[in-house]
């Protein structure tokens, strides 16, 4: 290959990498995602995942520092520490939700939320649904100006969305890898799902113990779906959305069976969807309904909306 | 940084183009960040463990359980000053400040030093000051026997460790 040819090939690869990692995507999409993410942080810290708060009451003998804690010298949980970290996170998320001080508030949320998770996970049990959310919190502040109605597309917005998408799909793909690493190839023929249902199954989930082959077959389906999850990046827009909906159906069925929901990860899967379009549709539907309710009360009592609004009452 | 067009690492849009593009340096640090974070996640998946969080392996439900055998779970039973009977009580965050999996992961430490169970009684007293205090706690291993993934109805209980208040 000539020097010009090599340079051309390198430039082509560079363009492809840039096109994949930094696709120009709507700024408004990140603006919507940002609001959902910071609203979720409030929900998560105050209600869904309060493990860290309870660890303040556990004896320090149960504290088992993670690598990050050993490197940073983080102490065991105490009531004052947990209160400071938790409420700093809540205040910062509330500020970030308003769109003010997006970088300061955003990175404060990222730091305090991660610390709160650290407190939760340094007592012997680590949840595996939160790494993609940490990536989102770290990157959202890089898009300092994100107007909810900004119709432009930007590479900064595209990078945030792509990074979240990649980590979200890594959650699936590397879960399959972990099954092969820790459970071996025989994982698909093991009784892992039956065990999960016996330990924490709902009445709905326990029904499947009467047809154990369903739980066995589900393990093949799960392994296949997780291994194939990266294919989502090759799909067109319509099928990509359908794939995301299918994952939501999968998570709903897991919740119905063993009451495990990967809440932050579910939020992260929204990064694949055209959120600004959904918002506009919701708003248009809301406006239509509101107009439909207003017009009859102004022009009559029949509630048939715009078509009748201009018609004199006497001619109806 | 920013996507609004006026930010320091973005370049102005070309006429007729609605795409705000990044300057080369901003592209480089982002691509570098992806490389570093991907390496950490892959290393965690290949050789890491839970202590690597957030880069540890995604290992929930990753172990293999034989189709026939016992499904094991732990529970605790407690005594109060006015009741000599052992009463089962759930291991929950709200009750003892730890969840069941966190206790289940420390069985060797508990059996080697049952005094650890006393810390659960103290945590319970702090979290539930209106409840009756616990004067003794014992850890029970519950085994639900399954054959071909189907519970047979046989459940075994084995006491692994007991702590009594001095």
C-alpha Rg of chain A, in Å?
24 Å
Structural class of chain B: alpha+beta
* Percent in strands of chain B: 25-35%
Helix share bin of chain A? 55-70%
How many beta-strand runs of chain A?
2
Q: Please describe the biggest sheet of chain B, giving its number of strands, its sense, and whether it closes into a barrel.
A: 4 strands, antiparallel
Judging from the principal axes of the Cα atoms, what is the shape of chain A?
globular
Main sheet: strand order of chain A: 1-2
Span between termini of chain B: 62 Å
Oligomer kind: heterodimer
Which word captures the global form of chain B? elongated
Tell me the series of helices and strands of chain A, N- to C-terminal: HEHHHHHHEHHHHHHHH
Structural class of chain A: mainly alpha
Number of domains of chain B: 2
Mean pLDDT of chain A: 90
Number of helices of chain A: 15
> Which two chains touch over the largest interface?
A-B, 82 and 71 residues
Number of separate strands of chain B? 6
Encode the helix/strand succession of chain B as letters: EEHEEHHHHEE
Q: Report low-confidence residues of chain A grouped into runs of 5 or more.
A: 298-316
Report the helical percentage of chain B: 25-40%
Any overview of this molecule?
The complex is a heterodimer of chains A (316) and B (166). Chain A has 316 residues and is mainly alpha-helical. Chain A has a domain at 135-144 and 161-274. Chain A has helices spanning 3-21, 27-48, 51-55, 67-72, 79-98, 102-121, 131-139, 155-183, 192-200, 203-207, 212-228, 237-258, 263-268, 275-299, 306-309, and strands spanning 25-26, 153-154. Mean pLDDT of chain A is 90; it is low at 298-316. With 166 residues, chain B is of the alpha+beta class. Helices cover 31% and strands 31% of the residues of chain B. Chain B contains five helices and six strands, in the order ββαββααααββ. Chain B has helices spanning 24-47, 93-96, 100-104, 107-112, 115-127, and strands spanning 10-11, 19-22, 69-80, 83-89, 136-147, 150-164. Chain B has a four-stranded antiparallel sheet with strand order 4-3-5-6. A two-stranded antiparallel sheet of chain B has the order 1-2.
